[in-house]
């Protein structure tokens, strides 16, 4: 599904990612871990098409297409979804309005008919129940006055409705208490399918207690310094990142 | 410039859709203004004597006045002798009796604008007065309104058919000497709408006037007078467009509203005069005086405006809250782009007891535009327990535009409560990226964010207008996200 080859990325001439290689197949969950400043969020942003990053070398192929050549909205319509670390507020725009506009722009791109208001409402209400959210959520302005947990749950709601193929989750666990974390994890698990892949960027192991990854990669200083199975996360929890960084430097 | 900014620029650089010119034979005065021109105007309109006197008095006063300079707008002095003060499509004798007699090209022009004047094609429930340059060319649904006792006609016709009503109210809210442009208008106004809603009548349909400037080198000086008698209710809509021309054209209107006891007037404007091109060339100078007098107890006037056009807008729809328990409201969206300038806001003058006013103003600036909110809340000593709430928000798109706020508050009554809230924000790259990451194009994202920002005002617009206003806002954005 996704093939990252020798990816080098700079911000304002400062190299951040220095040759990332990663192969993600359909249905897999990959966790990207690493210390602060290792380039985790940069990777999430570059894959989802945020501006301000310069790819100096390498390629990213997504379902045989050149992902890096696509505008952000085209990537979204092709099924790439980023769950934001800091979801923004959009005053005056209701959640349900945004969701419907987003879904229809994706469906239109994919050659499907737009959903009408009634069908959409049925769909949304079903997902809202699934995520144990209050329906009132839908009519509030996007993220305005939401608590940290509500914002993250809202991201998962969007994911559930847009049904992306590749979900990139940027520190979705940050700022969540344990109950909210469980709800979010439950939502993600309900979306797991053989056609859908996940990249979970996280600093801590605790999210991985609830969402079990197939692979764990450790990013340090812009490179993947170690890859392994779910056990690697536990090892990191115990030993920290220091030993890997030293290894990489040696 | 980032990719998203470029896309926005492309999409919002759409042409002004209403910029066409209708070629037709017109009766146009040669440029210039003196007493002879005013005599000629009054004669052509077959006005009663008092009107000529009114005009001449206003003209004489205007000559002693100076163009105001306090507004936060810049423009070269206007040569008032280079403007023609009357232009009307040529027509048979006394004016058209029915649509068949109107120049088909004029009908066609309105059709192109989406305002068919044929009653069959009109949405039921909206009566239209169409003002083309200096004259009203058609008023629809007159018969149906007459059944309800509502008078809705061109003001030139009202001067002939209901001179006593016009005489009683004209200039009673905006006196001829009120300000420079009001004085000019009082001297040379040509047409506009007149509305009278009798006691206890709820106007059976929305009334609307559609103003169109067509002829070159002319000014449009329209005059609107709306009187809501005791216990009546009316909702009035106004729309404006003009062709694209390289020179600036002056539109100096006066609108007076009078609400008597227990009456309600809702006045909505979607102003889309030609704003000039991307370099700031051409466009309409929209120098307008709009004022309402809530004369009776429990009366209410609500102004809602969506201002997206004009090179320069200078306009403060105001309410004089004379009657006890009267209410004044002002809901405004003003969008400026490229080199447009807007200095707009409202005045709420509290005179009666327990008077209330609400001001919600949303200013949006893009390109190199300057957008100013200027508002006055004045509570006189007589206005015990008066209350005002003002919310004034500015949204900036890009980094070369400006937003300015000048709120004036004068309170002479200790029991009054006056609140003012103001915010200034920018459409952030983060908001844009978030929307695009959800599959929306950059241009749809900007439209959505701007519409969200204006929501509190749009919900005050009549349904039909709200949709138009939202679409217009999307089209009028021409700038870039920095």
From TrEMBL, chain A:
<keyword id="KW-0067">ATP-binding</keyword>
<dbReference type="InterPro" id="IPR003593">
    <property type="entry name" value="AAA+_ATPase"/>
</dbReference>
<dbReference type="InterPro" id="IPR010230">
    <property type="entry name" value="FeS-cluster_ATPase_SufC"/>
</dbReference>
<dbReference type="GO" id="GO:0005737">
    <property type="term" value="C:cytoplasm"/>
</dbReference>
<dbReference type="GO" id="GO:0016887">
    <property type="term" value="F:ATP hydrolysis activity"/>
</dbReference>
<protein>
    <submittedName>
        <fullName>Component of SufBCD complex, ATP-binding component of ABC superfamily</fullName>
    </submittedName>
</protein>
<dbReference type="InterPro" id="IPR027417">
    <property type="entry name" value="P-loop_NTPase"/>
</dbReference>
<comment type="similarity">
    <text>Belongs to the ABC transporter superfamily. Ycf16 family.</text>
</comment>
<dbReference type="InterPro" id="IPR003439">
    <property type="entry name" value="ABC_transporter-like_ATP-bd"/>
</dbReference>
<dbReference type="Pfam" id="PF00005">
    <property type="entry name" value="ABC_tran"/>
</dbReference>
<feature type="domain" description="ABC transporter">
    <location>
        <begin position="2"/>
        <end position="246"/>
    </location>
</feature>
<keyword id="KW-0547">Nucleotide-binding</keyword>
<dbReference type="GO" id="GO:0005524">
    <property type="term" value="F:ATP binding"/>
</dbReference>
<dbReference type="InterPro" id="IPR017871">
    <property type="entry name" value="ABC_transporter-like_CS"/>
</dbReference>
UniProtKB/TrEMBL annotation, chain B:
<comment type="similarity">
    <text>Belongs to the iron-sulfur cluster assembly SufBD family.</text>
</comment>
<dbReference type="InterPro" id="IPR010231">
    <property type="entry name" value="SUF_FeS_clus_asmbl_SufB"/>
</dbReference>
<dbReference type="InterPro" id="IPR055346">
    <property type="entry name" value="Fe-S_cluster_assembly_SufBD"/>
</dbReference>
<protein>
    <submittedName>
        <fullName>Component of SufBCD complex</fullName>
    </submittedName>
</protein>
<dbReference type="InterPro" id="IPR037284">
    <property type="entry name" value="SUF_FeS_clus_asmbl_SufBD_sf"/>
</dbReference>
<feature type="domain" description="SUF system FeS cluster assembly SufBD N-terminal">
    <location>
        <begin position="146"/>
        <end position="203"/>
    </location>
</feature>
<dbReference type="InterPro" id="IPR045595">
    <property type="entry name" value="SufBD_N"/>
</dbReference>
<dbReference type="GO" id="GO:0016226">
    <property type="term" value="P:iron-sulfur cluster assembly"/>
</dbReference>
<dbReference type="Pfam" id="PF19295">
    <property type="entry name" value="SufBD_N"/>
</dbReference>
<feature type="domain" description="SUF system FeS cluster assembly SufBD core">
    <location>
        <begin position="211"/>
        <end position="453"/>
    </location>
</feature>
<dbReference type="Pfam" id="PF01458">
    <property type="entry name" value="SUFBD_core"/>
</dbReference>
<dbReference type="InterPro" id="IPR000825">
    <property type="entry name" value="SUF_FeS_clus_asmbl_SufBD_core"/>
</dbReference>
């Amino acid at each position: 599904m996704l093939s990252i080859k020798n990816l080098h990325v700079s911000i304002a001439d400062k190299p951040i990612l220095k040759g990332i290689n990663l192969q993600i197949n359909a249905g897999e969950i990959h966790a990207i871990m690493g210390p602060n400043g290792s380039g985790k969020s940069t990777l999430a942003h570059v894959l989802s098409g945020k501006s301000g990053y310069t790819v100096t070398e390498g390629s990213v192929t997504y379902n045989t297409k050149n992902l890096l050549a696509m505008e952000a909205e085209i990537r979204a319509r092709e099924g790439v979804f980023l769950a934001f670390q800091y979801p923004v507020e959009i005053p005056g725009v209701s959640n349900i309005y945004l969701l419907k506009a987003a879904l229809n722009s994706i469906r239109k791109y994919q050659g499907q008919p737009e959903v009408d208001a009634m069908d959409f409402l049925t769909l949304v209400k079903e997902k809202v129940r699934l995520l144990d959210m209050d329906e009132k959520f839908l009519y509030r302005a996007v993220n305005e006055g939401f608590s940290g947990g509500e914002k993250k749950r809202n991201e998962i709601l969007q994911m559930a409705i847009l049904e992306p193929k590749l979900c990139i989750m940027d520190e979705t666990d940050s700022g969540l208490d344990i109950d909210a974390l469980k709800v979010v994890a439950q939502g993600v698990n309900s979306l797991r399918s053989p056609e859908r892949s996940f990249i979970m960027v996280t600093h801590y192991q605790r999210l991985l207690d609830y969402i079990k990854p197939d692979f764990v990669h450790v990013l340090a200083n812009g490179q993947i310094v170690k890859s392994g199975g779910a056990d690697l996360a536990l090892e990191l929890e115990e030993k920290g990142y220091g030993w890997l960084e030293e290894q990489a430097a040696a | 410039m980032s990719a998203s900014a470029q896309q926005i620029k492309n999409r919002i650089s759409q042409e002004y859709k209403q910029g066409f010119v209708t070629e037709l034979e017109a009766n146009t005065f040669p440029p210039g203004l003196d007493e002879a021109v005013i005599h000629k105007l009054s004669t052509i309109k077959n006005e009663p004597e008092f009107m000529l006197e009114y005009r001449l008095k206003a003209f004489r006063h205007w000559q002693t006045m100076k163009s105001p300079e306090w507004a936060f707008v810049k423009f070269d002095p206007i040569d008032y002798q280079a403007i023609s003060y009357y232009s009307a499509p040529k027509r048979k004798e006394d004016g058209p009796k029915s649509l068949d007699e109107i120049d088909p090209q004029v009908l066609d022009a309105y059709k192109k604008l989406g305002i068919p004047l044929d009653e069959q094609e009109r949405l039921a429930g909206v009566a239209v007065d169409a003002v083309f340059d200096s004259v009203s060319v058609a008023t629809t649904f007159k018969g149906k309104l007459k059944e309800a006792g509502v008078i809705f006609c061109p003001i030139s016709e009202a001067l002939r058919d209901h001179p006593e009503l016009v005489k009683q109210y004209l200039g009673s809210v905006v006196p001829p000497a009120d300000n420079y442009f009001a004085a000019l208008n009082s001297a040379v106004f040509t047409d506009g709408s007149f509305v009278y809603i009798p006691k206890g009548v709820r106007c059976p349909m929305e009334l609307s006037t559609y103003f169109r400037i067509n002829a070159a080198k002319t000014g449009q000086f329209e005059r609107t007078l709306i009187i809501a008698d005791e216990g009546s209710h009316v909702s009035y809509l106004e729309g404006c467009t003009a062709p694209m021309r390289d020179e600036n054209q002056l539109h100096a209107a006066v609108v007076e509203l009078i609400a008597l006891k227990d009456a309600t007037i809702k006045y909505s404007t979607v102003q889309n005069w030609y704003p000039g091109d991307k370099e700031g060339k051409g466009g309409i100078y929209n120098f307008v005086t709009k004022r309402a007098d809530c004369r009776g107890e429990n009366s209410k006037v609500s102004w809602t405006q969506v201002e997206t056009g004009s090179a320069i807008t200078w306009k403060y729809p105001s309410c004089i809250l004379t009657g006890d328990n009267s209410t004044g409201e002002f809901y405004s969206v003003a969008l400026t782009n490229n080199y447009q300038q807007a200095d707009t806001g409202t005045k709420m003058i509290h005179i009666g007891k327990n008077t209330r006013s609400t001001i919600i103003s949303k200013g949006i600036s893009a390109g190199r535009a300057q957008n100013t909110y200027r508002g006055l809340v004045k509570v006189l000593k007589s206005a015990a327990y008066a209350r005002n709430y003002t919310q004034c928000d500015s949204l900036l798109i890009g980094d070369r535009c400006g937003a300015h706020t000048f709120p004036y508050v004068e309170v002479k009554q200790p029991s009054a409560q006056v609140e003012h809230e103001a915010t200034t924000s920018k459409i952030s790259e983060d908001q844009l990226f978030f929307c695009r990451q959800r599959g929306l194009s950059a241009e749809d994202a900007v439209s959505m964010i701007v519409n969200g920002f204006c929501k509190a005002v749009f919900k005050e617009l009549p349904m039909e207008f709200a949709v138009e206003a939202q679409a217009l806002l999307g089209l009028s954005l021409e700038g870039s996200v920095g």
